[in-house]
Amino acid sequence: MQIGLIRKYGYQAEVHRVETKDGYLLGVHRIPRPGAQPVLMVHGLGDSSATWVLSGPCCGLAYLLSERGYDVWLMNIRGNRYSRRHRRYVPLMRQFWDFSFHENGIYDIPATIDYILSRSGPHKQVHYVGHSQGTSAVFALGAERPEYMKKIKLLQALAPVAYFRNLRTPVTDFVKPYARTLINLVRLFGINEIPPEREVWNRLYYQLCSFAFRNTCKYVIMLLVGMDSPQYNETLTPVLFSHYLAGSSLKALEHYRQLLETGGFYKFDYQNPSANLRRYGRRTPPEYKVENINCKVALYYSRNDLLTSYKDVQDLRKKLPNVVHDELLAYSQFSHLDFLIAIDAKKLLYDSMFRVMEQVDKGEL
């Protein structure tokens, strides 16, 4: 259990339950520093709050922020292994999985921000750190509910995901022509969760990646997110596989498939003009108005990220009205996963993040 990872190293840890407006009960983990400036950390697709602590106290961003005096809150989006409860639905029901990063942004993040601020004494804003889908979700929130940007002191986006106009990789080029057919086929079998959450799978991944297929597991990871052997801690391979496949919705994958196909940052397309007309007042889904994201934003991205193109992040940067820091990482091999577990992540990335946070906290940015 993720909370055990934190306590293992002598840190205090708390489990909180946050209810969203549409009835989901989210598991939120905390490394508490009562009265300190709160930081909300939001993981990517198929991931969980464990991603911020897997590297241990030396390298895990959650620990490093706690050591710098922040009150650290680790969110789990609806549907992952720590957030599988709802007031009306259960995971066996299709309705439970009717969400993508849009609902994560419109419901999960604001509910968690409000919960944190109600327990943060004099603090009226949170620092926000998101990785991958954790950036897509907060961009959707800012575009649709810009009033919540007043509650974010600084939005730090790691490997930001919004546009896909320039993403060209062997994996995306191979998957793109077949993605729609594969997703529809999975849906025909009544599968709404990807991958199905079962404890036996977690144990199997851990065992396989610990021994016989360790190198294969490593290769699969790097094939998907980018090759960077010098920064990859091989001892984390079985732990990554046992924690990473934490569950998400088929609809979330479908939403990203649509973005990959169109290149733009659009709301979910229901593939039916009448359905779109009922929801959006138009036959095609509208584009998110990222110009509404007017809080302070810091962007961190890399050339070797196979899940988002640095050119697309730079296009996003031109549309955001209040970017206070824009960093294309100097280390050329930095990959999508390196934002979380690179051996030298502190030197290559986190120290820069800490400087920006300190400047914002002091009112210098």
TrEMBL record:
Name of the molecule in the record: AB hydrolase-1 domain-containing protein
Annotated family: Belongs to the AB hydrolase superfamily. Lipase family.
UniProt-listed InterPro entries: AB_hydrolase_1 (IPR000073), AB_hydrolase_fold (IPR029058), Lipase_euk (IPR025483)
Keyword hit for NAD: no
Keyword terms of this UniProt record: Glycoprotein, Hydrolase, Lipid degradation, Lipid metabolism, Signal
Molecular function as annotated in GO: hydrolase activity, acting on ester bonds
Transmembrane region(s): none
Active site: 132, 305, 336
Domain AB hydrolase-1: 38-157
Keyword flag Signal: yes
Species of the source: Drosophila rubida
Entry-linked PANTHER family: LYSOSOMAL ACID LIPASE-RELATED (PTHR11005)
Biological-process GO terms, alphabetical: lipid catabolic process
